[in-house]
Recover the amino acids of this structure.
């Protein structure tokens, strides 16, 4: 896969080249937002990794420009460690994922593989939401990316689930990404379901997004499990 | 001639002078009188002798002619023996024309030495000559005896010299007695006179002696018997707050105007007066009395003022020393000094002042030695040592005075250790706040090297796990980058630590370039992210200044963040804001080491320009700034004898310039590369 990395830090850029090459990707680099956009227009890579904090044009601005020019381009933003405000801001601008600095190999690999899967899903036009019933609960399986487009589907799924069972499990695929608007809808759904007396659990969400849900206060309303099989209601 | 008299007292002088003058006058009179009287007497007796001789010559002319010797003899005996004349007339004899003695009154043979002893000239009327007759001397008077025109003989009358001398002797004794009497009377009179004249002067002298011994109250001059005046009548005597302006013309011209003229002066002075009449001594006495009174008043005031200042000295809340300029030793110290410094007074007196504060003492003495410094010198935050060796901070006020005739300095030291410590705490607190503000930026800054390191090591691990071999070029690249990034991270941490360190209380030599480098290395990337460029224009080498790097960093940080805020504020509402620009300059200007921070932000409005250094003054929204930054900065800069200047134009930007005196003696060649 061809990946464009935008970062003002030359050492970081160098490391990105080495490590992404080692992972078998083709790497384009840019040292500033402006340069990144130029490369982007010229090369049209499907995936862009951009630092957020940069002198001149910052990552948010780059993200906005890229999304304006080509909605389909996947953009993963690199944020400072624990800077969730910026991460959420980026997600609201339809960034597909974010990686914390310092960038760990696993996180990078995860983000890249999620992006690849998402691209595949998008390509296959697979259905994002599925409901099936377990003995003790209704399971909502989420695949691909949840975005503003999936708002009504999400609401329907919750309505169905809460009608059939008291307990609801949100089962996220490893590659799931949720954008800002979708998070808001999700939070809304969970709140109303709880108000109806439902208990909600979730499973399988990547650490990144679990962090986002933490910050949004959703984690306190639901119990999180690693896998669907682990979910047990008291 | 009069010099031996100079040692005499006035009375004796008067006495001597009067006596001498009278004596000289009487002597002259006596001599004159004696000369006149004696010569007159002699002449008179001569005249009488001549008369006798002429009488004999007239009456005996016929007898001579006839040579009637018995008659002639009878005549001359009659003449000689006539009453008291016999004492005077010693002898008479008559010669004829041929010089032959016709008769004589000697009861013995005619003494041959008389023959021709007193010849009479042919035409002479008279001849007087002193002749010797036996054992005695006599004045021989010869007159001619005539018959018609012819001379027929000569009559000689001998006047007894003994008799004349005894008469003169009597006269002399009389004069002597007279003069003696005059002397005795003069002696007495002049003695009384001298006494009378010199008595007031003697009294004044005695009083002056009393005064000079400091015995003002026993001096009798104010209590002269003729005085109806009482001390309590003078309001200035009992009320020393109201000095007697009557005498004090100097003060009257200056201070009286300010204090309101009339109330400070008695309408009529009950004391001061000068009698119209009286001689010079009486005038002197009056002047003297006025003088004594005025001295008395001033002595009272002086002693009151002395007591006031002595009690101020003793009860003052701050240690006060009197230090000799020449020996540099302590001459006196107040009780508070004992308390604060821990030395006893006996130890303090005579101690070298440098023992209390070596650096300051040296500076202080140098300052007073260079030319005459008439004013006090104030030195803030000087380190002094207690007896125990514990240092403390004092603000020192040194004033030159004259103490017991010697040039000295009054040194008042206020213990401000607590204040300095509080100050340090406040600065530390503000620094911690700055650190807090910086933390996000610093975290980001620290994340960069960590990121590169992490990715590098991950790359190594990944390739290793994948069983691939790493090309040596790549391996080297990664390893070099990792160690470079570790250095970078530890650099950031060092700067942060030095910034956050609590400033110690001692000053050092600081190169402002170092300060600038430290601060900007912490923040410049962060500022870049805010679209603010920091440009450095450092003069190298730069002279040292005496300060604390740590606190100066705080000042610079405050200035730079203020500049950034001004730029950010300027940007608000602008569609395409220009890039922010902060220029930090170091330079030397007229013996001052300067540091300036220029921004292109909003600028400071004129009306708040002089308020910006006030504590808690802020133009920022509530919650964003405490308004302490510039106040603290100002305090710090003033602590190092520096000052802050502002030049600002609204809408164009602001320049803050710090000026510090250069450290004397330091070369300042240190390079500004240390971060």
């Amino acid at each position: 896969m061809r990946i464009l990395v935008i970062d003002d830090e030359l050492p970081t850029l160098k490391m990105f080249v080495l490590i992404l090459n080692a992972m078998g990707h083709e790497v384009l680099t840019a040292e500033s937002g402006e340069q990144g956009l130029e490369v982007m227009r010229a090369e049209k890579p499907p995936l862009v990794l951009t630092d957020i904090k940069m002198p001149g044009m910052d990552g948010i601005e780059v993200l906005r420009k890229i999304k304006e020019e080509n909605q389909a381009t996947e953009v993963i933003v690199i944020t400072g460690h624990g800077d969730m405000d910026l991460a959420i801001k980026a997600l609201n601008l339809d960034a597909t994922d974010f990686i914390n600095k310092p960038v760990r190999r696993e996180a990078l690999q995860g983000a890249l593989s999620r992006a690849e899967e998402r691209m595949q899903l998008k390509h296959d036009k697979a259905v994002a939401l599925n409901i099936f019933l377990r003995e003790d609960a209704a399971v909502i399986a989420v695949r691909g990316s949840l975005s503003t487009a999936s708002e009504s589907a999400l609401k329907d799924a919750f309505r169905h689930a809460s009608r059939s069972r008291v307990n609801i499990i949100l089962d996220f695929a490893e590659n799931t990404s949720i954008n800002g608007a979708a998070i808001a809808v999700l939070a809304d759904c969970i709140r109303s379901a709880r108000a109806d007396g439902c208990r909600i659990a979730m499973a399988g969400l990547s650490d990144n997004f679990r962090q986002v849900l933490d910050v949004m206060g959703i984690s306190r309303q639901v119990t999180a499990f690693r896998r669907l099989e682990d979910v047990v209601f008291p | 001639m009069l010099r031996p008299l100079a040692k005499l007292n006035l009375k004796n002088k008067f006495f001597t002078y009067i006596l001498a003058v009278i004596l000289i006058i009487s002597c002259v009179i006596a001599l004159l009188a004696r000369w006149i009287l004696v010569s007159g007497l002699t002449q008179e007796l001569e005249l009488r002798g001549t008369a006798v001789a002429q009488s004999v010559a007239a009456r005996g002319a016929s007898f001579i002619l006839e040579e009637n010797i018995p008659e002639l003899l009878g005549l001359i005996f009659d003449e000689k023996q006539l009453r008291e004349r016999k004492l005077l007339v010693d002898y008479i004899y008559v010669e004829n024309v041929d010089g032959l003695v016709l008769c004589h009154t000697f009861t013995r043979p005619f003494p041959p030495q008389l023959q021709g002893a007193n010849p009479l000239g042919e035409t002479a009327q008279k001849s007087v000559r002193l002749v010797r007759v036996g054992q005695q001397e006599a004045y021989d008077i010869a007159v001619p005896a005539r018959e018609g025109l012819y001379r027929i003989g000569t009559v000689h009358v001998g006047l007894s010299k003994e008799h004349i001398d005894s008469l003169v002797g009597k006269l002399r004794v009389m004069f002597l007695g007279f003069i003696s009497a005059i002397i005795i009377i003069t002696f007495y009179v002049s003695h009384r006179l001298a006494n009378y004249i010199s008595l007031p002067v003697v009294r004044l002298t005695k009083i002056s002696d009393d005064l000079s011994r400091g015995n003002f109250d026993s001096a009798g001059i104010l209590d002269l018997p003729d005085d109806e005046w009482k001390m309590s009548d003078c309001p200035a005597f009992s009320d020393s707050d109201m000095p007697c302006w009557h005498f004090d013309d100097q003060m009257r011209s200056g201070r009286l105007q300010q204090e309101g003229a009339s109330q400070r002066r008695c309408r009529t002075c009950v004391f001061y007066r000068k009698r119209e009449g009286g001689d010079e001594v009486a005038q002197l006495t009056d002047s003297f009395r006025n003088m004594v009174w005025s001295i008395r008043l001033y002595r009272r005031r002086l002693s009151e003022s002395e007591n006031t200042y002595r009690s101020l000295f003793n009860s003052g809340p701050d240690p006060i020393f009197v230090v000799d300029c020449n020996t540099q030793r302590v001459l006196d110290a107040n009780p508070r000094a004992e308390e604060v410094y821990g030395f006893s007074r006996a130890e303090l007196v005579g101690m070298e002042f440098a023992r209390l504060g070596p650096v300051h003492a040296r500076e202080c003495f140098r300052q007073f030695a260079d030319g005459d410094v008439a004013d006090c010198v104030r030195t803030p935050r000087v380190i002094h040592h207690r007896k125990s060796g514990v240092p403390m901070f004092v603000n020192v006020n040194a004033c030159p005075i004259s103490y017991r005739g010697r040039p000295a300095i009054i040194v008042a030291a206020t213990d401000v250790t607590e204040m300095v410590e509080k100050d340090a705490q406040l600065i530390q607190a503000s620094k911690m706040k700055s650190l807090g503000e910086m933390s996000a930026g610093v975290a980001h800054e620290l994340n960069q090297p960590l990121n590169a390191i992490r990715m590098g090591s991950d790359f190594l691990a990944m390739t290793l796990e994948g069983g691939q071999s790493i090309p040596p070029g790549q391996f080297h690249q990664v390893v070099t980058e990792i160690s470079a990034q570790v250095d970078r991270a530890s650099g950031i941490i060092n700067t942060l630590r030095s910034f956050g360190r609590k400033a110690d209380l001692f000053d050092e030599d600081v190169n402002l370039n170092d300060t600038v480098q430290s601060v900007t290395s912490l923040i410049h990337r962060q500022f870049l992210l805010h679209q603010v460029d920091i440009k450095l224009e450092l003069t190298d080498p730069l002279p040292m200044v005496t300060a604390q790097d740590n606190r100066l960093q705080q000042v610079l940080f405050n200035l730079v963040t203020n500049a950034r805020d001004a730029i950010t504020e300027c940007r608000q509402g602008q569609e395409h804001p220009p890039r922010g620009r902060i220029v930090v300059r170091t330079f030397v200007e007229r013996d001052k080491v300067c540091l300036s921070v220029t921004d292109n932000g909003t600028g400071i409005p004129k009306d708040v320009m002089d308020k910006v250094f006030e504590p808690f003054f802020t133009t920022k929204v509530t919650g964003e700034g405490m308004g302490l930054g510039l106040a603290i900065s100002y305090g710090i800069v003033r602590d190092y004898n520096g000052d802050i200047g502002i030049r600002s134009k609204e809408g164009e930007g602001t320049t803050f310039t710090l000026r510090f005196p250069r450290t004397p003696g330091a070369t300042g060649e240190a390079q500004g590369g240390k971060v």
